[in-house]
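We were asked to recover a plausible sequence for a given structure. The inputs and outputs are reproduced exactly as logged, with field labels preserved.

PROBLEM: sequence recovery
POSITIONS: 347
GIVEN STRUCTURE:
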């Protein structure tokens, strides 16, 4: 099994073996039910997870997976921690905060899907917000569960913003972009690909959109990760590794053939704009195809980077409680490294 293989040695191997090497072949035994929740609504970046379902990648791993939409990266970990879902994906920072402030929470991540953070503050040029300091005295709209809102203190600290001068407007996820477009707020917090492309669906000119990334301000964070309770992972290693392998397989195919996942998306919502969601999904790969991933494959993540993300959250919220990277990040559940290569072909 993948957990017993020396990943550092395998990462140096030049040979590429076929990605699909499922634990359970078709027809062998009963499928294991897995309740899986995403981070947000079914949009372009979520399409590969749906494609994995439609094309039977989870089933080939012996898994009967149900996939539900999410309502923000602050909400998904709550639902996984409660046991309502077995596995989820979400921006990792709210989970780190939960672990630091709630000792009974046992969430861990065996796999960081997006090592590049796309948390951002978005405004429109008419608001005349040219620098982060210009946000002072302004209204920022976001759900309370949005990772960009929850991690705003880190952005404020890095840019010298007086966070007490920010007025937060709380809305449901569906109303965030429309409130910004109408002028009911001067800015919004969120994921860049979600915000930019959703504003475009509201006929906002891309040239009028201003995005200020947290990463550009020097905030060292990780992004979308697979979340699971430690006891569940330890009791079900085959499930966790199989989920990772299916997710990697689907994303690799989505990069080389973007039309496949978009077909899964439009199958669920015929009103979807396929061209826009395809573009949104491809843009999301900027945060997946980091130099480390291109060089060493999916899961090529050091404990030092994980610790840096933890320490950023601790500092941002003035939390004294320590958390070691090895208590949060469990890469032993990753498949063998030769199954984690990222394809070289462009999408």
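RECOVERED SEQUENCE:
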């Amino acid at each position: 099994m993948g957990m017993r293989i020396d990943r550092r040695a395998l990462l140096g191997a030049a040979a590429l073996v076929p990605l699909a090497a499922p634990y359970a072949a078709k027809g062998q035994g009963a499928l294991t039910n897995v309740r899986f929740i995403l981070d947000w609504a079914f949009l372009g970046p979520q399409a590969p997870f749906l494609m994995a379902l439609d094309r039977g990648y989870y089933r080939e791993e012996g898994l009967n997976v149900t996939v539900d939409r999410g309502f923000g990266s602050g909400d998904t970990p709550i639902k996984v921690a409660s046991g309502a879902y077995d596995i989820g994906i979400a921006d990792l920072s709210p989970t780190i905060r939960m672990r630091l402030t709630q000792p009974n929470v046992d969430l861990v991540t065996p796999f960081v899907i997006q090592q590049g953070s796309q948390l951002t503050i978005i405004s429109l040029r008419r608001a005349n917000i040219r620098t982060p300091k210009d946000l002072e005295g302004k209204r920022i709209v976001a759900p309370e569960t949005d990772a960009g809102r929850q991690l705003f203190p880190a952005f404020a600290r890095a840019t010298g913003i007086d966070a007490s001068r920010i007025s937060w407007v709380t809305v449901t996820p569906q109303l965030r972009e429309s409130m910004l477009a109408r002028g009911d707020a001067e800015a919004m917090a969120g994921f860049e690909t979600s915000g930019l492309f959703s504003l475009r669906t509201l006929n906002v000119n891309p040239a009028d959109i201003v995005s200020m990334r947290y990463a550009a301000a020097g905030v060292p964070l990780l992004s979308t990760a697979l979340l699971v309770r430690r006891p569940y992972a330890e009791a079900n290693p085959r499930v966790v590794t199989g989920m990772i392998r299916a997710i990697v397989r689907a994303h690799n195919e989505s990069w080389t053939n973007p039309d496949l996942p978009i077909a899964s998306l439009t199958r669920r919502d015929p009103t979807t704009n396929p061209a826009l969601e395809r573009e949104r999904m491809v843009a999301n790969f900027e945060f997946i195809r980091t130099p480390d991933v291109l060089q060493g494959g999916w899961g090529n993540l050091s404990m030092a980077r994980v610790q840096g993300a933890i320490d950023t959250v601790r500092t941002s919220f003035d939390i004294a409680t320590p958390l070691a990277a090895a208590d949060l990040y469990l890469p032993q559940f990753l498949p063998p490294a030769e199954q984690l290569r990222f394809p070289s072909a462009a999408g």
